[in-house]
Here is the input.
Amino acid sequence: MKNIIIFFIISLCGFRTFAQQITYSEPESQDLRTLNFDIIGKVSGNFLVYKNIRNDYAISVYDNDMKLKDRVDLDFMPDRTINADFVAYPDFAYIVYQFQKRNILHCMAAIIDGNGKIMNKPVELDTTHIGFFADNKIYSAIFSEDKSKIMIYKIQKKNDRFNFTTVLFNDSLQLIHKSRIETSYEEHKDVFSDFFVDDAGNFIFTKGTKLSTRDYLQKLTLVTKAPLEDNFTSHDLNLSGNYLDEIKLKIDNENQQYLINSLFYTKRNGNVEGLYTAVWNKKNDTLISQNFLKFGDTTRSQAKSEGGSRTAFNDYFIKDVILKKDGGFILTAEDHTTQSRGTPWNRYDYLYGNPYFSPYDYYYPYSPSAYWYYNRYNYYNNSQVRYYYENILVLDLDNTGNSVWSDVIHKSQYDDNNDNYLSYNIMLTSGQLHFLFNELERRTQLINDQSISADGKLTRNPPFRSLDRGYEFMPRYAKQVSSYQIIIPCTYRSYICFAKIEF
Here is the structure.
């Protein structure tokens, strides 16, 4: 009997070691579902969330128990502020925002402390004179992995040229260099990737070119700009007659290299054959490796819940690239389609057909700069739409793009006219990747947690009962705020609130 009791106690201790603790914030009366928000991060031990509704801008400050300490009105931000970006540090955070006054567009920056209070008077970073009918959302802010470099950039189109302006700052918002560069751009044939700045201050992106308007990419160029230079350096990559899908660029600062990934085709109207990977060495300014990895029959049969194996990856989209110290990386891709009455699903239209999904647009759904925007996917579409988010492919690749191991996380999600509760997010902790996503089990919505270890072992952990208190989670908009904490937005009745999960 004594041995049984000891075993029981040890079992309980083991359970507590791997258990997750969920703490919810109380819904605020003004935080209805039309609220726009952005999880800024953990600053001075508090969790800061930016909120915007009907031209009212505020920072909600939550303590470690997700109790609201304060809601700080951002009175310095004018009405109709166009957008705001955030750079969070351990003890403060920058708010980079833009607004229009008459025909002048102002890009500003303010610094706030861990209590959401402004610390100094906002400073002006740049201004632009715009015409009456011109687009007034032209500035975007990006920052390096170590946050030592902050860059604002703007792109203005004139005829068949793109005029880039990049303004590089250090982490004290001291100006390092400002550049103005003009480059050619053909609207229906050229496609830019997301834009990045590395720890040294280099500006990096890719430019893909299509043979015709309805094609995939048949030419790819890596474009870089050194911190103090005023011109782009272009590096053409040989695709050996293959065609590329959406480009995912990733900076590996530790190994001083740039990773380029895309699904590829061998025919213009063919099926997805596999993964294209190119590794560019920044230090030597040379291509280290280029690999076209074809997906095998085993991977194809695992990846597709139904249908033929040849079309198994035609609905997959690359979502995450997670770096490893040895120069390798883990890549994830998700099976995603939509269905609407009278409009068949078309991968090309999803990627390139709607200007709302431009790869350099602020609200591009998988962009690093994207944040929650209520009902954004139906803004341009009044018809009934059903969203499907299915299996997740996980690939472990070495530093040349060759496969080490692969696995598929099986899930099945769909919803009508709203995909805010679909898809997944990743929590990286204790050397494991935790994939968090909603699934309906026995009429109860549960947060599933499936983790993958460094050697590819997949573990199905006990699910979270996300609806025990009437909360519905939105994992796709979650943000990891420490090595063991993640903040997940959720809805409670008609309100938006937030949940902290500790691993």
